[in-house]
Design goal:
By secondary structure, the protein is mainly α. Helices cover 75% and strands 0% of the residues. The longest helix has 29 residues.
Amino acid sequence: MSLGIMILTLVTIGILALAMAYTLVLTKSQKKAKGNLDSKILEGVQERPYIRNPIFLTYLIFFALVLVTIIFFTMDLQQ
């Protein structure tokens, strides 16, 4: 396996581990919510709901990694 693929693999595994940890933290905080009421949304999230949304961040990171992979393979084929 080449060095570039190894680095991309490690970065991907790191992102997946962080995403899993973040999901577990959010899940635990939701279990602590009182009753059937939603918890209050933080002011920072209210000001920028699209930037702070984890789904949009996930898509952004995914497409950035796809572009990096495409660029890497394009450069690798030209050599």
